[in-house]
Design brief:
Number of helices: 12
Distance between the termini: 85 Å
Largest sheet: 6 strands, parallel
Structural class: alpha/beta
Strand order of the largest sheet: 2-1-3-4-5-11
Radius of gyration: 29 Å
Length: 391
């Protein structure tokens, strides 16, 4: 009898054990399914995130500069990116592009923790401040990055710093705006001259191939500004002889224009003259102006404000960049067209070029990050929306 009880107990234990194992196995299967679903969702999210910027990388020529494959930098490598400004939507996109490139490299190389490649974006508090940018450049060179990329605020500046970088084996890549310095490893930018010539064609069409056009150039010292001014003027002169690009206003020289205005108007205290009054006077000297070409977001905005104050509603406006105010003005018909650049692509490609230089892989002299012509008619198209960095 005792033996029969023990046998029954054994059988019951076996049954309970089998059921428990089956339950655990079932739970395991359910957990695995949930994990699989989570991983699939995560994969879809990563793919969606990739698509958000991939088209901006696909636009880069040569295509190698939109790809981090094969860039085997040493663990803990440091890269530096210096813009012409630290604030504003355009420069934030450059920073995002640079950081994304480094993130992609760390993922590709499996670097974690202290081994991760690092990048720092910095720029002057006041956009285009040459002295502040040179000071930042000095500070960054003292940190001995393996590569440094910079949007050069003054094409004639930084030569001494670039020589010092060469002596210490720090390759320099220019982006957005370069210079004639012979030691640059590459220049990553929009085709400034080509897009300005396109803008000249668009402007001529808008004003019926005849009339006076004014140029508002964002500064008088950067290469990007000079290339856009030259491209637009040459485009008009060569293809639209009855359109006169009659005068240029450099946004960084308004103090000089102020002194000139004070002298012309016999104003005793020139310091009382505002920048707005100076710009308004520029338009008042050209009452028959048919169009304005402005070469960056700030210059576009100041042109629009002046035209509103003077109640000039029949002046056509073409500009560069795509901040929120510009896009709104484009939709409202205050702006006729914008050359939208690819600052995210610039940041990404400049990091790739810096890494290639650090690895002695060689670089193309010029990397084109492309641009898009945007109007009220096409701004809501899918192709354009993928490019906009302000919505």
């Amino acid at each position: 009898m005792k033996r029969r009880i023990n046998l029954t107990a054994i059988i019951l234990c076996f049954i309970v054990g089998v059921c428990a194992c089956a339950r655990k196995e079932e739970e395991k299967d359910h957990k695995t399914d949930a994990q699989k679903k989570l991983e699939e969702t995560k994969g879809d999210t990563e793919e969606t995130q990739e698509k958000e910027y991939q088209k901006k990388l696909d636009a880069i020529e040569p295509s190698a500069y939109g790809d981090i494959s094969g860039l085997k930098l040493e663990p803990g490598s440091y890269l530096s990116v210096i813009g012409k400004g630290s604030d504003g939507e355009y420069w934030k996109q450059v920073q995002k592009g640079a950081e994304q490139a480094v993130s992609d490299m760390n993922k590709e190389l499996g670097y974690k923790g202290k081994d991760q490649i690092k990048v720092t974006y910095s720029g002057p508090t006041e956009a285009g401040n040459v002295d502040e940018q040179v000071n930042i450049l000095d500070e960054e060179l003292a940190r001995y990055p393996v590569g440094l990329s910079i949007s050069i605020a003054d094409a004639k500046a930084c030569g001494v710093q670039f020589d010092l970088a060469a002596e210490n084996g720090i390759p320099i890549v220019a982006f957005d705006s370069g210079s004639d310095y012979q030691g640059l490893m590459a220049t990553v930018s929009t085709n400034n001259k080509g897009t300005a010539q396109m803008a000249a064609d668009k402007m001529a069409e808008l004003i019926g191939e005849k009339g006076e056009v004014l140029l508002f150039i964002h500064d008088s010292s950067s290469m990007s500004a000079k290339e856009r001014e030259t491209g637009f003027a040459e485009g008009m002169r060569e293809s639209h002889p009855e359109v006169q690009a009659s005068e240029v206003y450099y946004m960084d020289q308004w103090e000089e224009y102020k002194s000139r205005l004070a002298e012309e108007e016999k104003i005793e205290n020139p310091e009382e003259i505002t920048e707005e009054e100076v710009i308004d006077s520029f338009f008042e000297k050209h009452p028959d102006v048919k169009g304005v070409f402005a070469t960056d977001g700030d210059s576009v905005q100041k042109v629009l404000e002046s035209l509103a104050r003077l109640e000039k509603e029949d002046v056509r406006v073409i500009g560069y960049d795509g901040n929120k105010e510009e896009l709104e003005a484009l939709k409202n018909g205050e702006i006729d067209g914008l050359v939208i650049q690819n600052p995210f692509g610039m940041g990404y490609a400049s990091v790739v070029a810096s890494a290639r230089a650090a690895l002695s892989m060689g670089n193309e002299a010029y990397v084109n990050t492309d641009a898009m012509w945007v109007t009220k008619e096409n701004i809501d198209s899918g192709e354009v929306k993928d490019w906009l960095y302000s919505r």
